[in-house]
Amino acid sequence: MTVLAWGNCLGDMSADVAMTKKGFGEMAITATMAGPIFNILIGGFLSNLGYKVSNNDRKINFTAF
Question: How far apart are CA 13 and CA 56, in angstroms?
Answer without folding.
Answer: 40
